[in-house]
């Protein structure tokens, strides 16, 4: 199961772990996945590559309906702009997918946001503090 995270879905997040340096990535996709563990690198079963994930607090509860934990995964698909920055045929030369956010806006417990950088409008958003 995967969904676009909402603020209320992230209250049990303890940290965000990046597997790659995100400084040069205009955007990453984020999804809320149901997994069997609270922390550690979750299984990744999408095309493309995992860029990061969230770890939950030690006391984070399991979902009542599935018995699994809801954790964020950050990823890029093969056709995403950060993978093909100079390709004029890239489908996201301007704009970004619905679930895409600027990785510089990501914090544990907070959904990331779109910025001029993630939308490729030519403006540069300030780095997170």
Automatic annotation (TrEMBL):
It comes from Streptomyces durmitorensis. Keywords: Plasmid. Pfam families: DUF6009. The lineage of its organism: Bacteria, Bacillati, Actinomycetota, Actinomycetes, Kitasatosporales. It comes from the Bacteria. Residues 108-121 have a biased composition (Polar residues). Residues 79-129 are annotated as: Disordered. This is DUF6009 family protein. InterPro entries: DUF6009 (IPR046051).
